[in-house]
Amino acid sequence: MSRLNELRLISRVAQMYHIEGRRQAEIAQHLRLSQATVSRMLKRAEAEDIVRTSVIPPVGTYSELEGGLRDKFQLPEAIVVECTEDRDGAIMARIGEAAAHMLEVTLSPGEIIGVSSWSQTIFKMVENIHPQKSAQAKYVVQTLGGMGDPSVQTHATQLTTRLARLTGAEPKLLPVQGVTTSREARLLMQSDPYVRETMDLFGSITLAIVGVGGVEPSELLARSGNIFSSRELADLEEAGAVGDISLRFFDKNGRLVKTPLDDRVIGLPIEDLERVDRVIALAGGAKKAAAIAGALHIGVIDMLVTDKFTAERLISY
Question: Each residue of 301-312: pLDDT tens digit?
Fold first, then answer.
């Protein structure tokens, strides 16, 4: 009976604390116990299964899908957003909203943010960010060349400068093409002091925000002119490529597909993401499922923000 009496008192302490909302000091005074004893009893209440913690996810959240992604890909964290339409435009908008909120609540003062410049989903994120007053970043670093077709080249500059303004940071631009005509052209462009200044910050990035693309370029990237020829893209597919992060390609198992094309890209290599404290990937859509799966297998992504339709495809992949 002594154990039952002990458990009865523990149950009463737990009831007062969790149900009646009383503070530990108040419980201790009411029951003539020390506050240390009350604290120990609350811990015992959990150990004895008197108090059980239940998490009931709100409607519109997908904790099971998030858990499935974490388990399947050994992914540290996943955010799966509600989306009523399995359509690229709607998916990008919802992912952008969720990513904006996550950035706002997790941004640390002095953060150096690396951002992939030719991503419509990242642009949607930037559109949804509120100006940050307390936790302000130091730099926003463009991680892929932003020049291209004059009709769309402002996209990359706008994305970087707008994110910098919203986070209180200084923008560091890459005012060169993402894809050069040759290795020699790349080396020449990288010798520009402004380009060099930005690229020297790659090793100091603390937060990288990346998109994931398929071998077939997005409409925006295709319009920018920062793409390879049809023959070169076909060669990438023959080599096993399924997708890219900032025009660095990988196969379905996350192995990097190295070709001479790498020598023509001005941007952050995937290998450098391993040294970044936090890498957030924003990606979704039926056409990108294979690319996203491959990207997750690389092992450099710390958080994926995607939609429920894509999450279901990835888990069943």
Answer: 999 999 999 999
